[in-house]
C-alpha cells in the first residue's frame, strides 16, 4: 500500500488497483477560441496547470499504472447533444458552430483534441463523453472493472464541473478518489477552492485532495 499525505487525512492506495483520470484537457477548454473562451472565460488560468498535469502523468507512466484521458464533445450531427445544453446561455459561439479551432466541442475537430503538452501515449485510454460526468453514456465503468481499479486519482478541468461531477459519480460507485490540487483548475478560483472543500468535507465525503509533490513523495 502507498500512503499519501492528503487532506482531510491520509489517502492509502494499492498500486496495482489505481488509475489516473485526466479530465478534458482539450484545446476547447484551455486555448483561446474554444468552448471555454466563447463562454467568456479567461482560459489562461487553465494553462497554468499544464506542468502539474504533465508531472502527474509522468508519475503514472513511470510506474506503468493505467491512464485514462477524457474528452467532452459531441457527434458531428449533434445527436448526442441535448438541445438544452446547446441552447443555454449566450455564448459567442454554440456547440457545433464553426470557430477558429473548428466546430466547437465536436469529435475530430482541432479544438476537441487534447493539448499537445499532455498528448496521450500508446496504451492509454481516450474516452469521449457527451456529458460532464465521465461515467454517463461511456464505457468508463466497464474499463475500470476490467482493470480491477478500486482507487482513482483525478486531474483536469474544470474542478467544479467535469472533475467534481466525475468524482461524485465515482464515489457513488465505490471508488476512493484523490484529486491532485495543482493538476486541476477552474475559470473561477473561488469555485476551485469551494469544490475542493466540498470534496474533503465531512470526512472525505467525496474524496481526498493533495498536491502533486505529496503523491510523488509517497511513490518515490
Ligand atoms: C465544462 C468541463 N466546464 N470539462 N466542462 O463545461 O468542466
Structure description:
This protein is α/β, with parallel strands linked by helices and 220 residues long. It is 35% helix and 21% strand. The protein contains 9 helices and 10 strands. The chain has helices spanning 27-30, 35-38, 44-47, 50-63, 83-87, 140-147, 159-172, 189-204, 212-219; strands at residues 2-4, 11-13, 18-23, 67-72, 98-99, 102-103, 125-129, 151-157, 176-185, 208-210. A 6-stranded parallel β-sheet has the order 7-4-3-8-9-10, with helices on both faces. The chain has a two-stranded antiparallel ribbon with strand order 1-2. A hairpin with a 2-residue loop joins β5 (98-99) and β6 (102-103). The longest helix has 16 residues, at 189-204. The mean pLDDT is 97. InterPro entries: Isochorismatase-like_dom, Isochorismatase-like_hydrls, Isochorismatase-like_sf. Residues 19-206 form the Isochorismatase-like domain. Pfam families: Isochorismatase. It comes from Methylobrevis albus. Keywords: Hydrolase.
Radius of gyration over all CA atoms, rounded = 17 Å
On the 0 to 100 scale, the average pLDDT is 97
Beta-strand percent range: 15-25%
Structural class: alpha/beta
Q: What share of residues is helical? A: 25-40%
Strand order of the largest sheet: 7-4-3-8-9-10
Most strands sheet: 6 strands, parallel
Count of helical stretches? 9
Bound molecules: dicarbonimidic diamide
Distance between the termini: 13 Å
Shape: globular
Secondary-structure element sequence? EEEHHHHEHEEEHEHEHEH
Total beta-strand segments: 10
**Unreliably modeled segments:** none
Pfam families: Isochorismatase
Protein name: Cysteine hydrolase
GO molecular function: hydrolase activity
Domain Isochorismatase-like: 19-206
